[in-house]
């Protein structure tokens, strides 16, 4: 589903954020990405969404080689990828419903379809009763779940999360991980970048570790799908 072949990324200014990174994530897999601050985790996620481009090497997402992908195809690529951030990046002057509806409005869905899909996504994260609330009135864990509902409302095949439990206590973090597992169980490929080793170690998924831009443990990458 996601494959990196010898990918390096050097930012302008000379910093090499990733060095010869190769791996493969299977369809329907759930996988953790760990590493020290600055190891290259966010860079790796950005390359999958074409928010950055590799300096060398190739990235494949859902069978597409991103190297040859014309810019006009980037929106379609991104619709296939839901993204969850640590600080959830909600709009605080809009209701929970409106926040979750945003990707659908951008994609040009009809209002009736939007309402149906937004409620289905809120139901999945257990927040159906809070659709009219403003984000500021919700707890940190609830805000993060709104961010997850927004990430899955388009029914993406891939879900990427960058430190999704960074600000949460252990109990809420475990709940958020359980939500990701539920999406994974219905066929979504899930990649979670996290520092939270105590939480990750208890869960039965592969883990890939980056150190100074290189893969140091976890997975070796050959395609299966
Ligand atoms: N736009 C950029 N321009 C220049 N250097 C960058 C840019 N983005 C990231 N870097 C550098 O690349 C390296 C990897 O950064 P990245 O954000 O991928 O690490 P990370 O593992 O996600 O770190 P953290 O856990 O702190 O978020 C860092 O040294 C960072 O300073």
Automatic annotation (TrEMBL):
SUPFAM superfamilies: P-loop containing nucleoside triphosphate hydrolases (SSF52540). Gene3D superfamilies: P-loop containing nucleotide triphosphate hydrolases. Keywords: ATP-binding, Cell cycle, Cell division, Cell membrane, Membrane, Nucleotide-binding. GO terms for molecular function: ATP binding; ATP hydrolysis activity; transmembrane transporter activity. It is found in: Cell inner membrane; Cell membrane. GO terms for biological process: cell division. Its main location: membrane. InterPro entries: AAA+_ATPase, ABC_transporter-like_ATP-bd, ABC_transporter-like_CS, ABC_transpr_LolD-like, Cell_div_FtsE, P-loop_NTPase. One of its GO terms (cellular component) is plasma membrane. Residues 2-224 form the ABC transporter domain. The keyword Phosphoprotein does not apply. Belongs to the ABC transporter superfamily. Part of the ABC transporter FtsEX involved in cellular division. Important for assembly or stability of the septal ring. This is Cell division ATP-binding protein FtsE. It comes from Dasania phycosphaerae.
């Amino acid at each position: 589903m996601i494959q990196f072949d010898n990918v390096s990324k050097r930012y302008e200014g000379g910093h090499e954020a990733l060095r010869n990174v190769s791996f493969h994530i299977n369809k329907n897999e759930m996988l953790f990405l760990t590493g020290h601050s600055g190891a290259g985790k966010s860079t790796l996620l950005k390359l999958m969404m074409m928010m950055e481009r590799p300096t060398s090497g190739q990235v494949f997402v859902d069978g597409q080689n991103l190297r040859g992908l014309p810019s006009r195809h980037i929106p379609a690529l991104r619709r296939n990828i839901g993204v969850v951030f640590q600080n959830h990046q909600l709009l605080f002057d809009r209701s929970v419903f409106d926040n979750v509806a945003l990707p659908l409005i951008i994609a040009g869905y009809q209002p009736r379809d939007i309402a149906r899909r937004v409620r289905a996504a809120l139901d999945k994260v257990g927040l159906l009763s809070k659709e009219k609330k403003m984000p500021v009135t919700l707890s940190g864990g609830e805000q993060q779940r709104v961010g997850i509902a927004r990430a899955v409302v388009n029914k993406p095949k891939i879900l990427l999360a960058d430190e999704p439990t960074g600000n949460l206590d252990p109990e809420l973090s475990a709940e958020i991980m359980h939500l990701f597992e539920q999406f994974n169980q219905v066929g979504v490929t899930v990649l979670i970048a996290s520092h939270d080793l105590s939480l990750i170690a208890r869960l039965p998924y592969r883990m890939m570790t980056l150190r100074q831009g290189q893969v140091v443990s976890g997975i070796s990458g050959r395609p299966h799908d």
